[in-house]
């Protein structure tokens, strides 16, 4: 099967003259996690993902990182080293490129022109259709799960995500999963000033308390329990991996906690884990 058989041909793009807030609004509007950035001639010059927004807009570092997101150029956040794939490549080549480079999407080009994009979600559909009965969840899942408690700070959560190059973390209590935090939870957090009730939509990310701006301190005091998704979908180890793929596609999620009969956390299965089964 070729990339052109499964790629998405309608590609959401944004101009490189826009700000991070524009990218965020596009992601929310279209329910996507990555956007191709183009120049004035509509040639791809970068790609921005939820992970980029979460990872790069941290308080520690240059002053620009402490600005509101409608004041930060997308050029500062996007990945400029674009990795592409030709339309006639085998999908297993696309899987290999994604896994080797720890990326979730590949712009598809022909003669230097953008003709589509292939994502882990596209590959998940392939697995869902072609690989029933091939692998159990236990064969593909990640067993060494990075976890936090609901009292850990968001600064700690983002640090763990960055250090381990992951897009989600399970929140546990007494060994049981009680929530999950994703890059989207952090990137698109809806915050309010507790004194005024005014939404702090202009996100200032995220680190130790800063003396510079009150809003930065407020964000920094958030805990995992404040923004985690509590309505968890869980699976057991003996489930078919196709069941996990189907749930991810239906519920538009990218990771599922795996538990035993006592609801103790045993692992997590993600889109990345599942597409490994295509190789």
Automatic annotation (TrEMBL):
Keywords: CBS domain, Repeat. The keyword Repeat applies. Residues 7-63, 78-137, 141-196, 228-279 form the CBS domain. SMART domains: CBS (SM00116). The keyword Electron transport does not apply. This is Inosine-5-monophosphate dehydrogenase. It comes from Methanothermobacter tenebrarum. The lineage of its organism: Archaea, Methanobacteriati, Methanobacteriota, Methanomada group, Methanobacteria.
């Amino acid at each position: 099967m070729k990339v052109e058989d499964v790629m998405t041909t309608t590609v959401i793009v944004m101009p490189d003259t826009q700000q991070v807030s524009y990218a965020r609004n596009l992601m929310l509007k279209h329910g996507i996690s990555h956007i191709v950035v183009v120049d004035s001639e509509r040639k791809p010059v970068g790609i921005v993902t939820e992970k980029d927004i979460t990872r790069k807009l941290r308080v520690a570092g240059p002053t620009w990182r402490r600005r509101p997101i409608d004041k930060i150029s997308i050029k500062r956040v996007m990945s400029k080293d674009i990795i592409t794939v030709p339309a006639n490549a085998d999908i297993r080549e696309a899987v290999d490129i994604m896994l080797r480079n720890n990326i979730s999407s590949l712009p598809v080009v022909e003669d230097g022109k953008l003709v589509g994009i292939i994502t882990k979600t596209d590959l998940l559909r392939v697995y869902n259709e072609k690989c029933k009965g091939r692998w159990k969840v236990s064969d593909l899942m990640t067993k060494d799960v990075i976890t936090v408690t609901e009292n850990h700070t968001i600064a700690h959560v983002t640090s763990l995500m960055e250090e381990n190059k992951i897009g989600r973390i399970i929140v546990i209590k007494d060994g049981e999963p009680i929530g999950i935090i994703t890059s989207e939870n952090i990137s698109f957090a809806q915050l309010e000033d507790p004194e005024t009730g005014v939404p702090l939509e202009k996100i200032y990310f995220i680190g130790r308390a800063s003396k510079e701006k009150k809003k930065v301190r407020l964000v920094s005091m958030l805990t995992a329990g404040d923004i985690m998704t509590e309505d968890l979908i869980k699976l057991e180890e003996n489930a078919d991996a196709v069941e996990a793929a189907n749930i991810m596609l239906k519920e538009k999620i990218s990771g599922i906690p795996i538990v035993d009969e006592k609801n103790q956390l045993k692992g997590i299965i993600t889109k990345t884990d599942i597409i490994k089964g295509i190789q």
